[in-house]
Amino acid sequence: MKNVFKKPDAINDAVMHYCPGCSHGVAHRLVAEALDHYGITERTVGVAPVGCAVLMYDYFNCDIQEAPHGRAPAIATGMKRSRPDLIIFTYQGDGDLASIGLSEIIHCANRGENITVIFINNTVYGMTGGQMAPTTLPGQKTTTSPYGRSLTADGYPMKMAEMLAPLEGTSYVGRMALDTPGNTLKARKMIFKAFDMQIKGMGFSFVELLSTCPTNWGMSPTQSIKRLQDELIPYFPLGVLKEKEAVD
Ligand code: SF4
Fold first, then answer.
1. Is 214 touching ligand 1 by the criterion CB < 6 Å?
2. In a domain, 176, yes or no
3. Which residue among 16, 142, 146, 189 is least enclosed by CB atoms within 10 Å?
4. Ligand 1, atom 7: nearest CA belongs to which residue?
């Protein structure tokens, strides 16, 4: 029988620095399981963001390149074009990807770069102290929106998956939540599919993971899961938004 508690080989024994109840550890594990499944760890390079996942090079057994301030898709583009034999993924939060890196991610997707992007959406800047992110929900209180996000003053939360899916360069776009075991298994399937698309040379693949940030939400891990279910999922619908068919 398969031991579901076995640690993926693509992740090491280091104790992760993430807060209790944070989704990053689960997301890391799912990526590592994909690397194990396809046997690609030795030829994979991850690109780390600025934000709480900046230290992800401490946890994966593949190579990791640091690319702060939203530049991960540009760095990934350079690596993939110069070494198309490598598997390249970026791992980015909402501040990194949807704010300071918005231009990079849109143009990378539009060019159809053959890379995989894992996007962590927890509706807040994590590492820098809980400021309002592009994904912050209407009325959500953050350190820079103490009275709640105002749609008139601050605009609407950005739905990155919906924004990227219509671009002709994208091959696969999906969004899932890391709340229940069932949804986590669906997220795993999406991540596997995204790497599979890259292995087959299908172009840009993107998986958005609705995630928790108990520390900056000011909640317990259990309350955070409930908020994810009650507030994030209704605003950011789950599912596969786009999947290109392979052409023989
Ligand atoms: S601040 Fe939030 S996103 Fe960062 S490690 Fe803690 S819970 Fe996770």
1. yes
2. yes
3. 146
4. 213
The total number of structural domains in the chain stands at 1
Q: Is residue 3 very low, low, confident or very high in pLDDT (cuts 50, 70, 90)?
A: confident
Domain membership of residue 9 (yes or no) is: no
Tell me if 223 is assigned to some domain: yes
- What residues does 129 pair with on adjacent strands? none
Give CA–CA dist 220/128, Å, rounded: 20
pLDDT digits (tens, 9 = 90+) for 68-95: 899 999 999 999 999 999 999 999 999 9
Which residue puts its alpha carbon closest to atom 8 of ligand 1? 22
CATH number assigned to the domain comprising residue 201: 3.40.50.970
DSSP 116-154: EEEEEE-SS-TTTTS---TTPPTT--BTTBTT---HHHH
Average pLDDT of the chain to the nearest whole number: 96
Pocket test for ligand 1, best of 16, 22, 56, 228 (most atoms within 8 A of CB): 22
Range of the domain at 38: 24-243
Amino acid letter, residue 5 = F
The per-residue pLDDT for range 120-133, each reduced to its tens digit, is 999 999 999 999 99
Q: Kindly give the distance from the C-alpha atom of residue 52 to the centroid of ligand 1, in angstroms, as a whole number.
A: 6
